[in-house]
Every structure is written in structure tokens, then in C-alpha cells.
Write the C-alpha cells for this entry.
Amino acid sequence: MTQIYPGAGSGFVALDQVSIALPAGQFTAIMGKSGSGKSTLVNLIAGIDRPTRGEIRVGGTQVHELDESRLAAWRGRNVGVVFQFFQLLPTLTVAENVMLPMDFCATYSPAQARARAAQLLARVGIADQADKLPSALSGGQQQRAAIARALANDPPLIVADEPTGNLDSQTAESVLELLSDLTRAGKTVLVVTHERDMARVADRVVTLADGKVVAQTSRAQAAAATPEVAHG
Amino acid sequence: MASQRGGARATAREAVTGLVSPRWRKLSRDVWTQKGRTALMVTAIAVSLLGIGTVLGAYAILTREMARNYLGTHPASAALELSAGVDPSVVEEVRRRPGIAEAEAGDIVLARAKVGDDWRPLLLFVVDDFNAMRLNTFKPQSGAWPPPDGTMLIERTAASMLEATEGDSVMVKTPHGAPRAVPITGLVHDPGLAPAWQEREGYGYITRTTLAQLGEPPVLGELRITVRDNPLDLKAIEATAAELSQWLGVRGHSVLQVRVPPPGRHPHQTQMMGVLFLMLAFSAMALVLSAILVATSISAMLARQVREIGVMKTVGARTGQIAWMYGVLIALVGLAAVALALPASVGGARFLAAIVANMLNLRLESERIPWWVFAVGAASGVLVPLLVAAVPIARGSQVTVREAIDQYGVGPLASRGQWRSWVALPPWVSRTVLLAVRNAFRRRGRLALTLALLAAGGAMFMTALNVSRGWERIVDRVYENRSYDVEIRLNAPATVVERLRRLDGVRAVEVWGYAATALSRPGQVDVVRTYPDGSHGSLAMMGPPPETGLVRFPLLAGRWLRAGDTDAVVLNHMVLGQAPGITVGDRVTLSLGGRPTSWRVVGIVEEVGSPGVAYVTDEAFARAAGTEGRVRMLRIATRAGSPHERAEIIRAIERELEARQVSVESAIPLAVLHTAMGDHVVVLIRMLLAMALLMVTVGMLGLGSTMGINVIERTRELGVMKTIGAAPRQIGRLVVGEALFVGVLSWGVATALAVPLTAVVGKTVGMLSFRVRLPLVMDLAAVSGWLALVVIVSIAATALPARRASRLTVREALAQL
């Protein structure tokens, strides 16, 4: 894949001929410095952005071939996105935020959606916050709600861009655990981070620099390369 | 805290709204959190819809009632004036002729009625049999029916002119009779006539016997007909009337003149419908402006919610689903406006219809408003805003997730360098002013919409006031172009001039030739466009002294009369209305007493407030009409310094004429003409002012709304400014300054736009009412008034949000989207 953003001269090359295969059912962390292209990479995989050149295949779907509307529908059913700033809709209650994807994708009836939202919120541990507005929740609680929302349509792929970037370390820890738990339920989890801690829970770490993949390590290799993680 | 309260409220509302799915809950809460803005949108559309519903409803009522009223009088298609009167047997024969649907004899006599110390014109309608009227009928309203011999009925609108009503007596004098007290025994409603107060004359209805008692020969001079085929086709009517004239001529009944008024149309109908159309156009413009206001509000809402749209798309919302959400929102805003405006417009329509009915002397039998008015109102209230908002909705909902997420926190404030440098001000201008001006140009799309909204609103506001001022100016031309005080027409030629000249207070007396005339075509009977009231659509030939000092009409073409002119004629512009296409140099044939006379057109003048007149020199007139040395019309100027004094002098003139036993047909003070013209347009002027008010409402709502949006959108930026040291007062000045800049800029555009708009509207309404363009007047009060409004509303709309914004702590401001 190559992604070039318009800018001065020939444009800014965010991803330069990256070719990567992510195994299903694993927790993959994408690391790199600011501007290395890691966010661009997950955006392309999640169908949030389109590659300038190249192909993206998720499951059996040629994502790069979908038009905007099909892409939205595909994303709604197949990808759960978690943002750094949570991005819950401020005028909807937590439960309603979780029901929103089911509404747009017409995957569950309103009654079923309600029940499923309650179930998902219980799973992320904030069942008691269901009828509050997001602004009444702490950051960690909001991110849990966002994860519940990402799970709404039971997508096989969960993508999270700096999900702990806006949380204190203790809260970050629990959110991280929550994400890694998802792989046990058979989800493929893709997390962008610049925190090396993440490598501890990741099955696989992809490191980017200047739009290129500079390293790909499995859990064992990563442990060898970063002793402090092995200790922790 | 605040949001928790908001949440509780929102949850409480949920039960009410019953919108189940989350996306509709989001939408309803968005509306709820922006109640003020939503109310503004609803109000703007509702106000314009109120205008549309009112005008359209009144139009529907009036067209229906006009048919019931005016056409219900069975107006004659044509009236043929027979020199020897109409024999009842002729009527019977005419009725059986092919092409004739109905025939009847009747007559109208121009008499005078004494009101106080003055004589006023009184049209006496002579009816053969009140219980068997077939054409130009009218209905009893109260009192006797038919009027006993020696008494008269009067039209309901004539009571104020005669200052007498049922039960009173009025002194009446016919051309050949002596003054005689005639009791009023009842009132009638005659929808075929314009209201008496508007025409400044009385309408009376008498039997043939009464006519004889008043000193006139008891014959009916008019044969009235309706045609069988194409009763509303002028050409068919003229052809039938001409054929009938020939047929009558062969049988020895000479036809002096044929009068064919515009078929099926009340004398003031064209004018009223024109004004209603103008009002409709204004209301429709107001609706478009309101729709633009809705579009700006929606585009601002979309800009603020771009991140939320991105999130919704991330979780699977398709572009269509997003667009549908906001489309439904607009439709609901429209529906709310419809629900508010349409019931109110019923009252408005009835009110307006009543005003117009009063102007047309109609009686509204039913005030029912047909369903299509509501259908059009509802459809335009929902569809027009949807149509206009379609562009921002399409653009806003097509935003891709990445664009939406990228814009988070930064704001879509991209601006190009050339604009910055373009908006360069001299170095001595304070940085705050510079920043305010540049800020205004940052969102050029919004700026363009705001400017368009305000400029159009302002231009139409000014136009409404300019046109009404132009109208007043036209009415004042009655005085500007005429310097006589009274016009006296005599029933029979007399020689009285010298005596009148010696009267106290009389400054000048001019003798003018006067005769009714018609544009004649060789071998054909004269056809004029005169209505039964004898004035609307009539044509006269006048013979003033060429060097007359009593009138001076603006020349539209050619020249005024000169001494020594023999066959020269100057036409006033009303003649062109009756016979379009005549130009200077043409020869026209005018019939005088049934004889054709030939003239060369040397000039065309504009004469407001008069029927058609063909001016020839007094000498040429006397030769052509055979009236040398005898006087039919006098125009007299007085030395009066006050209306009261003038009335006294006119009375003295009348007494002198009476003493000389000179029979006066009419004596019309110029002030009466002025009043009559003013009365014709006063209601129309008020209607235009109502339209101006509509534009003010919509325009100011638009200004307030966009200014408010601008401040709210910049809350975050204002926070940044505070962090770098801006004082709250400076921020307030910046925001209000920007609003003022936009407001004043729009005012400039509006003023420039008002000039051509006033010209176009002034031409339209002027042509409809007086057949002249209205003078292009820029009403200073309108121009400065709009500026004042714009300044006040700009400050009011921004001061509060600016204060709120400047009071926010930096942290709060930065937390804002």
C-alpha cells in the first residue's frame, strides 16, 4: 500500500509501499514515532481512508474496491473502531451510543439492541453507567463505553488508535487488558500505540518509521528484544 | 452538572418524543440543545409562510368573490348610446338577434348633489323596472325596493360622499332641471362600481318617472347588451356591437357611441391583482431568504457536528442515512413553521381580502379559503427549505471519516493567502479592526450567504418604502402639473368669463374647449373603453389656450401646443393605454358629436390622475366642434391662501353662475382629484409597508442567527486569544466589530441593489395604477433606517454570545469544539 497526502511539492508520503499481513485472532500492536504512518496504516485497514495505490483485503473483502456507502456498511458490520478521544456522541446516553451502530446497520431490532447494549456494557464493566450521558463518565469509563460500541455489531476486527493515550496509567492498564481479552473471544485486535508497554500484551508488534515497516516481531522476539517487558 | 441536568431533561423528553432509534434521539436532542436557533429557523419560515398564505388566501377569496360579485351583476359587454333613446320594442328585437345573449335599456345621468354648501357629482342610474333588471344589476341592502317615484336609492359607499343616508333628503340638480330635494329611501350594493368615496362622487338609483320629475326627458339612452359567444373576448364583443350598430342604423336608430369596458373586469381589478401579485412575489422572496437562513444554520450545525458525523460513519452510517437525518430535521422545521403559520394566515387572508374587497366594493359572501392554498403553503414551507438546504446537507454528509476526524479540534478554517492580502487595511487601523475584517472573510461561503440574505432583505425593504414614496410623489404631481383650483364644466355653452374674472380672489380664468370623444375608425361606429361610471377608461378632447398657465405636463415625446396650430393634437399617456402604438407624427381621427375630425399628433404628455385626454388649441377645438364663442369648460385659479379660503371662493363662483342661470355639469376642485388619487393608493401603500415589515423580520432574524453562529463557532479560538493575552473587552470588540462590518457591508450592497429593484417594481406598479413609471425615489428614511436596524441587530446578536465567550476560562474555551 502507498498513501500520499496532498501537500507541498509531490505531496507527503505517509506510507511508502507497505506490504503487511495480519493473522486473524491475534493482538497486533503498531508502533512508531509520531508521523511514522501508523495511524494511516490502521485507517486504511479499517476502511476509514483509501490507499493512493495498493490493495487491502480484510477477511474475504477487497476493501479498496468498495465505494463510500458500501465501505460504511462494511465497516459498521466488520470493524469496531476505538479512538484516542473516545468520540462518544455527547447527546446520546452511553447505552444509546452502543446501540447506534446496530441502528445504522440494522443488525438488531430496537429491543434486541437495547438488551445487547446492556450486555456489552456489563462485559466492559460499566453496566451501571448505561443511562448517563458520556460527559458524566470518567475517561476510562468513556473508553470502555467506546469499546462496547466497537463490539456492537460483533465485528471480527477491532481497530484502536492510541486507545490509552488520553488515560492515566492505571486506567490504561485495564483498558489494555480489556482489548487483549477480545482476542480470546476470537477477535482480531489492531492497536496503534507509541507506548512500549503495549508490546507486553501484543501477540505481534509492527514498527513503522517514515512510512515503512522497519520491524515485525512476534511476542517471543519482542520479549527478547525488550528485557524490561520480559521482567514486567 | 449542566450536562447532567441536560441529560435528565433529555431523558424526560425521550418518553414524549417516542423516537425509538438512537439516531433520531440524537437528532431530537440536537434540536433541543439548540432550541434558540431552531426557533429562529422556524420563525423565519413561519413569517414568510404567513405572508404567502395571507396573500394567496386573499387572492383565492377575492378571485372567487369577484366572480360572484362583479360577474354576478351581469355586467353588460357593451353599451350603445342611441341619440333618440331606446324604444322598448327595439330592445325586444335586439334580444332575439343572433349573437346577442341579453339586451336591456338604461341610462346614466350626471347630476349634482348639494352636500353642505357645495355641489358634488352624483351619478344617477335610471332603471326601467327594479324588479326585472337583467344587466348591470345591483342588490337591495336596506330600505325600499323599488324606490317610490320621486325618491332614490343610493349605493352603500355613497352615503359618506353625500353625507346623507336612508331617511335623509338630498338636493339634486340634473343638467336640465331645477334643484329638487330627493328623499333617500334605501341603500343598495352595486359591485360593478368602484367605491364612491374613492371616486369622490355619489351614486343614486331612480326610476324613469323620478328622472322626469328632476327635469330630464324620461327616455333611456343606453342599449346594453351581452354577447352570446366568447363573452370575455373584446374583439368578439366589438364585432357584435359594431354589427348591431349598423343594424340599428339601418332601422333609423343612430348610434352615437359604443362603450365596451374591459370584459369581465372590475375597473380596479387589474390594479388590485397586480398589487397582490407583487405582494406574493415579496412573500416568495422572503421564503427563499428564510430558506437560505435555514441553510446557513444547518451548514453551521453540520460544521460543528462534522466530528460526530465522522463517528457515525465509522460505526457504519452511510452518507444517505446521515443526509436523511438532517433532511428530516429540515422537514420538521418546515412542518413546525407550517403548523404555526398556516392557521394564522387564515386570519391574515381574511383581513387582507376584506381590505381589498372594500377597495373594490365587493361583499365577501364566503371567506372560505380553498384547500390548494394550504397545500401550496405546506408544500413550499417544507420543500423550499429542503431544496435550499440540500447543498450544505449533501456536502456535510459526504464528508469522509478521515476528513471528519482530521478536522477535529482544528476547525475547517482554511483560508487562502490572496484573501488576506486583499483585505489589507492601512497600518494606522487597529489590529482588532483588521482582525475583525479578516475574520469576516474567513468563511467566504457563509459570508456570501449572509450577505445575500441581508442584501436581498434590505433591498426589498428599501424597495417597498421607495415605491410607496414614489407613489406619494406621483399623487403630488396632481398639484405640480396643475395650477388651477377648480374645473367647472357647463351643461350648455355660456358667456360668463368676464364676470368671473372680476370676482374677489379669482386670479385667472381660462376657457377650455371640452367634449367627449372617441378614436374613430373610418366607416365604423365609435368604440370607447368607458365603464358605466363614465370616467374609468373614458376619452375627452380639450381645447386649452396654447399658452395656458394653468397646466404644465411633462412631455414624453414631441412638443406642447403652439398658437397657430390648426390640426395639432397632444395626447396624454392615458390615450396610449387605450390605443397603444400611436407616436408623434401619426394622424388620428377623433369623432366629435359623431363626426370624424382629423388631427396630427405633435406631442405626448404624462398626465397623472386623469382619464384619456386629447389636447388641441382652443381655436382649433372651437372650429372642429362648432362652439366658437361659447364656453363649456372653465379652469379657474384663485388667490386663496388656505383650503378654507379656496372653498369660499369656489362657492362664490358657483353662486355667480347660479345667479346667471348657468347650468353647471360639474365643479371639481383640484383638491378633490388629489384626495381621490390618494384614496386609490393609500391601501396599496400600506400593503407595501406590510411587505417591508416582513422583510425586516426575515432579514433581522437572518442577521441575528448567522452572527450568533459565528461567535459560537469561534469560542475555542477566542480561548486561544485569551491565552496569548487578549482582554475580554478586546475579544468583545473583535466579535461585535466583525458583525458590524458584515452588517454595514450588506447595507451597502442592499442600497445598491435597491436602485434597480425599485425601478423595476416602480415601473410595474406604476403601470398598473397610473400607466406611468413611478419616479425613482430613494427614501432616505428607508436607507438610514435599514442601516440603523442592521447595526442594532448586529450588536444585539453578537454582544451576548461574545460576552459569554469572553468570560469563559481558557480551559473551558479550549474544551469547546
Notes: The longest strand of chain A covers residues 212-218. Confidence is low (pLDDT under 50) at residues 226-232 of chain A. Chain A has nine helices and ten strands. The radius of gyration of chain A is 18 Å.
